Amino acid sequence: MNTSTVAGAPNLAPLTQLGELSLAEFMADYWQQKPVCIRNAIDLEQPLIAVDELAGLALEAEVDSRLIENQGNVADWQVIHGPLSEADFNKERDFPWTLLVQGVDCFVPQVHDFLAKFRFLPSWRLDDLMISYATKGAGVGAHYDRYDVFLIQGEGQRQWQIGQTCSENSGLMAHDQLCLLDQFELQQEFILNPCDLLYIPPLVAHKGTAVSDHCVTYSVGFRSPSHSDVITGFADERNLDLSADLRLKDRGKVTHSAEISADDVADLVRLMQQQITTENVAQWFGKLSTEAKYPNLDMAEEAMDADELATIVADGYGVLRVSEGVRLAYTWEGDGGLTLFAQGEALPCPPDTTDFAETIANQWLIEVDQLAPLISSEAAKAMLLILHNQGYLYFADE
Ligand code: SIN
Ligand code: CO
Predict the structure, then answer these.
(1) Does any ligand 1 atom lie closer than 6 A to the CB of residue 37?
(2) Is residue 271 part of a domain?
(3) pLDDT greater than 90 at residue 176
(4) Is residue 152 within 8 Å of residue 42, measured between CB atoms?
(5) Which of 351, 385, 391 has the alpha carbon at shortest distance from 371?
(6) Cα–ligand 2 centroid distance for 184 (angstroms)
(7) Quick one: which atom of ligand 1 is closest to the CA of 145?
(8) Residue 158: CB within 6 Å of ligand 1?
(9) For the domain that residue 187 is a member of, what is the CATH number?
(10) Residues 233 and 322 occupy one common structural domain
(11) 317 C-alpha to ligand 1 centroid (Å)
(12) Judgement on whether residues 269 and 338 belong to the same structural domain of the protein
């Protein structure tokens, strides 16, 4: 598989180190175990997005945004759900406020590229990159998330307080739109400067407060379906393939007619187990893991044909990119076949397309001058065209 990059291409390489911490130490001591604050963890030569552009995104109907003004006590938390209006931003506010914009990686190429740094973890677990902008004193209150989250300070300074590990039984404040904890047991406290990172595992209470104006925080969140989502999601998917004509059979004559016997139960277990094959589970999970965060986004690229593709490859200029917001993953079947998953779809890959499928899914970008050997077969060219014409891939200058 081709993993090289060429000078001049955007750097989509995964991180190899988190500040002073090696990835091996991070994985062994913190990941999914306990919070850690890492100073100068990530180079940020410049902000990922200008605040004006972030505010502009919050005006768009397809973008998930919120403006939260905290006015001191529970009843006074004001939440305005996007799309926001110019008037929401122009209004004089008496209290500190935070703008939160979800899934910025789906709209802004350099934010999508930043997310690539986290591919030292499975990229099919990446959910999105949320950006918050806060005025001095603002925060969104004490809460916990069910996701792993990396909080990276982009601009300004934010104080983070870390509290107890919560559960679904943890008490919440009475608020119809925010899930805020009614108790916060402070355990650690940090002030983050640009490039510092705080990792917070699922269920750990946290509370951020902007200690400067113009406080911008990037949150990289990881999806993780609940066990109950796994069970119901898999069952729903199999349901689509099972005819209603297939019915349970009983074993006939019995002595105790009210008894559901161990054999009856064993038949049911067998029936269910027949569905839990490696292939069924892999196919369903690949689709689930690559589902679009915003399924209604218009991704359509202008359709390209084989001749146009040949011209681009012959010119050898630019890059082939995975579109912003698109998730790719793949799985090898027992028989050596590969299935590529894109936006919740499964695409079986013939053998001479697998190098291309693997490379684009793992790297998110291929230099056009390195493309030819990966798409030397007609099948691989066809695969590229399908992905391109669906809007999952696009050609760009860089
Ligand atoms: C924020 O950036 O203000 C909130 C992020 C979080 O707590 O998950
Ligand atoms: Co949070």
Answers:
(1) no
(2) yes
(3) no
(4) yes
(5) 385
(6) 14
(7) 8
(8) no
(9) 2.60.120.650
(10) no
(11) 40
(12) no
Question: d(Cα 201, Cα 203) in Å, to the nearest integer?
Answer: 7
Of 54, 132, 204, the one to substitute when testing ligand 1's pocket (max ligand atoms within 8 A of C-beta) is 132
In degrees and rounded to multiples of 5, residue 284 shows phi and psi of: -65, -45
Ligand 1 binding pocket mutation candidate from 100, 161, 211 (most atoms within 8 A of CB): 100
pLDDT for the residue 9? 66
Q: Does any domain span residue 294? A: no
Instruction: Specify if 12 maps to a domain.
Output: no
pLDDT at 74: 60
- Structure-derived torsion over alpha carbons of residues 331, 318, 8, 391, reported in degrees to the nearest 10: -40
Rounded to the nearest angstrom, the distance between the alpha carbon of 14 and the centre of ligand 1 is: 23
Taking the alpha carbons at both ends of the chain, their separation in whole angstroms is 22
The finding on whether 98 has its CB within 6 A of some atom of ligand 1 is yes
Q: Is the pLDDT of residue 240 over 90?
A: no
User: CA 137 to CA 317: how far, in whole Å?
Assistant: 48
Q: Compute the distance from residue 150 Cα to the ligand 2 centre, in Å.
A: 10
Write the pLDDT tens digit of every residue in 46-82.
Answer: 999 999 999 999 999 999 999 999 876 666 788 999 9
Q: What is the CATH number of the domain that holds 310?
A: 3.40.366.30
Tell me the pLDDT band of 3, cut-offs 50, 70 and 90: very low
Q: Is the minimum distance from the CB of 209 to ligand 1 under 6 angstroms?
A: no
Count of structural domains within the chain:
3
Q: For residue 147, how many other CB atoms are within 10 A of its CB? A: 18
The answer on 210 and 240 residing in a single domain is no
Within this chain, do residues 327 and 381 fall inside the same structural domain, yes or no? yes
Q: Is the pLDDT of residue 1 over 70?
A: no
Q: What is the mean pLDDT of the segment spanning 9-18? A: 89
Q: Tell me, using a 6 A CB cutoff, whether residue 128 lines ligand 1.
A: no
**Atom from ligand 1 closest to the CA of residue 139:** 3
Residue 145: CB within 6 Å of ligand 1?
yes
Domain that holds residue 231: 227-246+261-276
- Give the residue-averaged pLDDT of 365-381: 97
- Provide, rounded to the nearest whole percent, the portion of the chain with pLDDT above 90: 85
Q: Are residues 265 and 310 in the same domain?
A: no
Asked if 200 and 232 sit in the same domain, the reply is: no
- In whole numbers, what is the pLDDT of the chain averaged over residues? 93
pTM here is 0.93
- Looking at the structure, do residues 77 and 215 belong to the same domain, yes or no? yes
So what's the pLDDT on residue 4?
Answer: 42
User: What tokens appear for 264 in the block?
Assistant: 């009856």
Please tell me the residue having the least CA distance from ligand 1 atom 5.
219
Taking the C-alpha atoms of residue 199 and residue 286, their distance in angstroms, rounded to an integer, is: 26
- Tell me, yes or no, whether 143 and 173 share the same domain: yes
Orientation of helix 227-239 relative to helix 278-289, angle to 10°: 110
Using the mean position of ligand 1's atoms as its centre, give its distance from the Cα of residue 128 in Å: 13
In a domain, 145, yes or no: yes
Among all ligands shown, which has an atom nearest to the Cα of 159? 1
